[in-house]
Design brief:
Elements: H1 5-9, E1 19-22, E2 38-42, H2 46-52, E3 69-70, H3 76-82, E4 90-96, H4 105-115, E5 116-127, H5 142-150, H6 158-167, E6 169-170, E7 188-189, H7 193-202, H8 221-233, E8 239-246, E9 251-258, H9 267-293, H10 302-305, H11 310-329, H12 331-335, H13 337-347
Parallel strand pairs: 1-2, 1-4, 2-3, 4-5
Antiparallel strand pairs: 5-9, 6-7, 8-9
Helix pairs in contact: 6-7, 8-9, 9-11
InterPro entries: SAM-dependent_MTases_sf
Length: 348
């Protein structure tokens, strides 16, 4: 990655925009000190964060950014309004290693849409389940997100706490080298199945219970793209993935734009695109076996070696149509419209 982690997350942003960063703590992606016009949102005040994370040597009075809006219940839009901010006035939202914690991820993303202006950007760093302690977890599906939203979850489920205790892994180490092969030959388990059952039995998922935190969503780059595509196709989200690439800290970095345009894919193009993403997701999950063996696969996946099929060509057409739509919605396309008009006049 030539741009660096922060550069990738900032690629669709500029300092004059009005933005929100969630959970910046002591490592903001868009630091106020560097001139970013950003509202800092966290689950507690700066003083509260310093108390909770007193054991963290990196969390100091100088390093932890001031918190403008405390958000520890309800929707982000409600917290912003309580603090005098106008919903629908923000250009972007940045969140690093945050979305995997929301009990109702679909509801949260839908709320983010209401906070943003048309064309607004959501810039995310998302843990890649293969490269962190979620190694043994299954990928989260569109149905999982819909279930959580329909149930209106504000607390994590008992199942989530069982999974955390039973399957959280140790021994996955990211050295921060671009495109590194992460070795999992020394992988282990953090806890045991009896403790997992204890967590299941004692966790209270009722809305009035004290909030207890856990990773509840697990993705790889392709499985996340698949879920976002399906939610948009179903009319449940209006977000388009503008870019996605691997990050240095067991993560992938995603930028999504808010759009009012319908998905410009036919039924066959949508199916073909979904199938390609499902195949890519399967290969990404299978990569865990290579990590366990400590040996990267030589060559490329068979899906990329085959002669182009009608299915793959249809999926490529669908991908290009989505890219063209994104370009036409971009600020640069709108700003250069007069130049293109003049060029067509002179060319005629």
């Amino acid at each position: 990655m030539t741009a660096g982690r922060e550069g990738i997350l900032q690629q669709y942003l500029h300092k004059e925009m009005l933005g929100i960063e969630i959970g910046a703590f002591y490592r903001p992606t868009v630091p106020k000190a560097d001139g970013w016009n950003v509202i800092s949102v966290d689950h507690d005040t700066k003083q509260g964060l310093l108390r909770v994370y007193a054991h963290d040597v990196n969390a100091t009075v100088d390093s932890v950014q001031e918190v403008d809006v405390v958000w520890n219940s309800g929707r982000l839009s409600e917290a912003l309004q309580r603090n005098g901010h106008t919903v629908g006035s923000f250009d972007y939202i940045v969140a690093s290693h945050v979305i995997e914690h929301f009990p109702d991820l679909l509801g949260t993303l839908r709320d983010f849409q209401t906070v943003l202006k048309p064309g607004g950007v959501i810039s995310l760093a998302v843990p890649d389940l293969r490269y962190c302690f979620d190694f043994f977890m299954p990928w989260s599906t569109t149905a999982d997100l819909i279930d959580a939203h329909r149930e209106g979850r504000t607390r994590h489920t008992k199942n989530a706490f069982f999974r955390m205790a039973a399957y959280t892994s140790t021994g996955i180490i990211n050295r921060g080298i671009p495109n590194e092969f992460v070795d999992a030959t020394h992988i282990g388990l953090l806890s045991n199945v009896h403790h997992a059952l204890d967590r299941y039995n004692t966790h209270d998922p009722s809305p009035t219970a004290p909030y207890a935190d856990v990773h509840t969503w697990y993705f790889t780059p392709s499985t996340f793209e698949l879920v976002m595509l399906e939610l948009r196709a179903l009319g449940l989200l209006d977000l388009h993935i503008a870019s996605s690439q691997r990050g240095p800290a067991g993560e992938f970095l995603v930028s999504m734009t808010k759009t009012t345009d319908p998905l410009s894919l036919s039924a066959s193009e949508l199916t073909a695109h979904r199938l390609v993403l499902l195949k890519q997701g399967a290969y990404e999950m299978a990569h865990r076996a290579e990590m366990l063996d400590g040996v990267p696969r030589v060559g490329v996946p068979r899906v990329a070696q085959d002669e182009p099929s009608r299915e793959s060509l249809t999926a490529e057409v669908a991908r290009l149509k989505l890219e063209v739509d994104a370009i036409r919605r971009s600020n640069s396309w709108r700003l250069t419209s007069p130049l293109r008009a003049m060029k067509s006049i002179f060319a005629g």
